[in-house]
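Many introductory courses stop at the sequence. We go one step further.
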Amino acid sequence: MKKVLVIEDNAANMTLFRILLHLGKFNLLEADDAKSGVYLS
């Protein structure tokens, strides 16, 4: 399973990413700002 890091501060957009990437069988890492995204990467 491939990992995808999504950095998005809009909750509606993050929900859309979550649904679509889940359907595509991706492992999703979520961050709501750049600092958190760098930490997760």
